[in-house]
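Human: My hope is that you can spare some time for a protein that puzzles me. I am handing you a single protein, as its sequence and its fold in token form. Could you go through the record with me and say what the backbone is doing? Take your time, and here it is.
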Amino acid sequence: MRPDTASVATHLADAAAVTPLGKFLRRSKLDELPQLWNVLKGEMSLVGPRPCLFNQKELIAERASRGVFTARPGITGLAQIQGIDMSTPRLLAETDARMLGELGVGAYFRYILKTVTGSGRGDRIKEKVE
């Protein structure tokens, strides 16, 4: 991102603010590598609900009402492989809750595999349509 970019959720970011290197990092998912440190420290999981920003009040309320915050946040999950981003807070919270209710070893590794092979499309910067 360019230095003067507003600090907003990814789906609200201006596509013009992303540098060519940033586009490559996001497309290749290399921008997620720093989060692996959080996984190693035990603060995150590979699979779980994506962390939200403190100012995403509607998403926080939707997740709280469904008990999503009882789980450790993750790098990927069902919402990401289904292309659901934070622009639809209720759907995202419902999907996170469903994932947590059904999460087992098989699903855990399936979500990782689908993300690595390119199915993960949540939290994308939206291109402006004119």
Observations:
- The beta strands are 45-47, 74-76.
